[in-house]
Amino acid sequence: MFLGEYQHTLDAKGRLSLPAKFRSQMAGSYVVGKGIEKCLYVFSPEEYEAFLGQLMERGDFGKDFRQVRRFFTAGAKEDELDGTGRLSIPANLREYADLDRDVAVIGNGDRIEIWNAKAWAEYNGEAEGRIEELTSDLADSGLL
After folding, report:
1. 5-116: which CATH architecture?
2. Residue bearing the bigger pLDDT, 142 or 104
3. Which pLDDT does position 144 carry in this prediction?
4. Which of 69, 37, 35 has its CA nearest to residue 52?
5. Taken in order 20, 121, 15, 28, is the CA torsion positive or negative?
């Protein structure tokens, strides 16, 4: 399980050193792809397969399902961590998530999220301001 928030930097080649706690859980390989809200999702291959399985359950007969599946799979990349525990983020994904030098690496249960550091600070600040309202609404609807 991935937990925590870490501030890191990308090098000039788009490589990111993962926090040590995350590296050990990746077992050397990972899948990186687009996430919702202009961040990147990083999964272990097993978790990505489970994630993709949920998308594939719906088949190809609904236009919205095809579009969502393509969104998550078209730019995804499977790779290995390098010898120092860095992952390589392709240019197209760095552009999608507006990643420059400063990034936030977020543990989100079954995956890691990589955010532009400024975008994460804004998003997280907004979420913190609404967390009581959000949890109350989810509890009222029976989802919590």
Report:
1. 3-Layer(aba) Sandwich (3.40)
2. 104
3. 63
4. 69
5. positive
Cβ-proximal residues to 103 (8 Å cutoff; 6+ apart), any chain: 7, 8, 9, 10, 16, 114, 115, 116, 117
pLDDT digits (tens, 9 = 90+) for 9-68: 999 999 999 998 898 888 789 999 999 999 999 999 999 999 988 888 777 777 888 888
Residue 6 three-state SS = strand
Task: Give the start-end residues of each E strand in 1-144.
Answer: 5-9, 15-17, 29-34, 40-43, 77-80, 86-88, 102-108, 111-116
H helix count then E strand count, the chain: 5, 8
**What dihedral angle (degrees, nearest 10) is formed by the CA atoms of 14, 20, 26, 27?**
120
Question: Hey, where are the domains in the chain?
Answer: 5-116
Extract the tokens encoding 130: 């609404």
Mean predicted lDDT score pLDDT of the chain:
90
Taking the model in full, what pTM does it have?
A: 0.90
